[in-house]
Amino acid sequence: MNLLSLINEKTPGFSKGQKLIARFITEHYDKAAFMTASKLGTTVGVSESTVVRFATELGYDGYPKMQKAMQEMIRDKLTSVQRIEVTRNRFGGGDVLSNVLSQDIEKIRRTIEETSKEDFQNSVRAISRAKTIYIFAVRSSAALASFLGYYYSLIFDNVKVISNYGESEVYEKLFRISEEDVIIGISFPRYSNAAIKAMNFAHRRGAKVIALTDSMMSPLCGLSDYVLIAKSDMASVVDSLVAPLSMINALIVATIIELDGKAEETFSRLESIWEEYDVYRSKSEGEEA
User: Residue 271: which residues within 8 A CB-CB, separation 6 or more?
Assistant: First the structure.
C-alpha cells in the first residue's frame, strides 16, 4: 500500500494535528518530500514530535522512512520548474557548495549499501564475454554513456554507444543485437521513454540487459538481467551523476581485472602510439616530476 493509501485508510483515527499533516502531504507531497520533520511541522503548525509520531502511526520506522516513501512517489514526476523550487527551498540561503557535496557523498554511501555485488560481478562477466557491447543513454545520461564508451572502446573493438539519436535511428543501431551481445542501459529520473523502449527491444531479442539506474522501482529493472543501483535522487534542476559515474569507474576497473592481462597488452600498444604521435605532453628537460 502506498503512502497516500495509508493516509486515506488511517485518517479517521488521526488527531487534529495529524490530520493537518495528512492534508498537507496529500495536497503537497512534492514539497513535503524534501522537508525535514521540523520544517514540515512548522509549515502545518504542529511540533516536530507530532510529525515523527505521524510517521510511526503509518507504520514507518521513523520519519526518514516516510520521507523516502514520499520521494519515491515524486522523483520521476517533478517538472523542471518544480525542481528549481525544491532546490531553492533546500539550498537557498545556505552553504550551497557544502550542502550539494554532502548530498553527493551520501549518494555514494547509499550506492555502496544498495547495489547488488552479485549483479555487479555478473555484469562484468557478461560484458567481458559479449560479442558486441551496446551502451544506451540519452539526455543528461548521455555524458555517462560517452565516458563509459570511451574507455571500453580502448579495451574492446566491439563497442557501440547510442545516444541522442532519433527514434528510428535507435532501432537501426540496435537491429543486429542478439543473444551473444550485451546492452547497458542508463537512465535516471525523469526516466527516458527512449531508454525503456531500447531496453525492451534488446530484451526481446535475447541480449543480456544491464540497467544502470537509481532504484529497483525504475522501469528499466523489469527488462534487465542485472541491475546496478547508483543513487541519483537529488530533486534538483541539475541531475546528480556523481554516484553513477563512480559505478562506471568501478565497472571499468573490474572489467580490466576480469580480462586478466589482455587489457595490459592493449594499453601497452596504445602507449606506443600515443608516444609516437605525441598525444600527451612530455615533461620538459629539467622539469620537476
Answer: none
* Distance of alpha carbon 237 from alpha carbon 164, whole angstroms: 20
Query: Is 213 a domain residue?
Result: yes
Q: Which domain holds residue 180?
A: 109-276
Into how many domains does the chain fold? Answer: 2
Same domain, 61 and 116: no
Interatomic CA distance for residues 219 and 221, integer angstroms: 6
Q: Is position 51 within any domain?
A: yes
**pLDDT one-digit tens code per residue, 238-283:** 678 899 999 999 999 999 999 887 778 888 888 888 888 888 887 6
CATH of the domain at 20: 1.10.10.10
Point out which residues pair with 41 in neighbouring strands.
none
172 within domain boundaries: yes
In a domain, 89, yes or no: no
